[in-house]
Amino acid sequence: MFKRLFGGKNDKYKFTVQEPTTETCPNCGAELENISDWKNGKIDCPHCEGVIVVRTGKLFAEDEANVRDGLESVNRRLFDYEITREEFNQIREELSKEFGLIASVNDTLWRILNSINTPDKSYQDRKFIYMAMDDILRGEGKSSNEILAKVCEMELLGNKELSENLGINLVVKSKTVNDSYVCDECKKLSEETFTIDEALETMPIPHRCTNDVCRCYWTFTPPGYD
């Protein structure tokens, strides 16, 4: 199965695009029966026991499905950049050689996001890169507050640049999603106002939030505007 997915002995960490099948196992190539009765989801191949991901009659190896899902999710977030499959496979090969084992989809996406998150990019571009990284961490059930703080920082810096260009001092306020899960600290925070510099210095979002993940966001208005 691994030879079919990732190459043979001489190209241990070579990755290719695997097109879905409709009548055979995408892992071992064995003929399958009663495929029309299969519902979307995962099923074990009766021949090789490899996981098959079923999607509207198309059969994917689990890794291939994960790669496609990961790329779609990240590219949906990015503002002015698209990670191609060719780039993904190349970085995954390099990372796998570095690790000495097959790099996960998320590890590969994380490496790519880090590599494109350069200071020459706009604050907006970098905000969306951090948002994609935040999605990855949340999907793995990990704390993302450090990355979320970077999202907020890019938002603040972008609006600071805008306010300087316009010659006005924007007022900063936080907004909650206004549901029963909003913590008391975030409720108090939503009643306060800041300058952009004050918000950048203290980063109250997400640092004052007492939940595992803060869902608050910044709003920016001209002085005296309610």
Molecular structure report:
The protein has two domains: 2-116, no CATH class; 152-221. Helices cover 46% and strands 11% of the residues. Residues 1-5 have low confidence and may be disordered. The termini are far apart. It has nine helices and six strands; from the N terminus they run αβββαααααβαβααβ. A three-stranded antiparallel β-sheet has the order 1-2-3. The protein has 226 residues and is mainly alpha-helical.
Topology (elements, then pairings):
Blueprint lengths: L1 H5 L34 E4 L6 E5 L2 E4 H16 L7 H15 L5 H12 L6 H17 L5 H22 L4 E5 L8 H6 L4 E2 H7 L1 H4 L9 E5 L5
Antiparallel strand pairs: 1-2, 2-3, 4-5, 4-6
Helix pairs in contact: 2-5, 3-4, 4-5, 5-6, 6-8
Biggest β-sheet strands, sense, barrel: 3 strands, antiparallel
Count of β-strands: 6
Give the CA-CA distance, first to last residue.
Answer: 62 Å
| Tertiary shape | elongated
**Low-confidence blocks of residues:** 1-5
